Amino acid sequence: MRKLIACVFFYSLDGLLADEGTEYWQFCFGLPQDPAEQKQKIDLFESAYAHIMGRTAYEAMAEALPTADHPFSAIMNAGRKVVFSRNLKTAEWAHTTIAGGATTEEIDKLRRNGDGHIVVWGGVGLWRSLMRLDLIDEFRVDLHPYVAGEGTRLFDDVPKSYRLDLVSSTEFSNGIVGLQYRRHR
Question: Does residue 107 surpass a pLDDT of 70?
Answer without folding.
Answer: yes
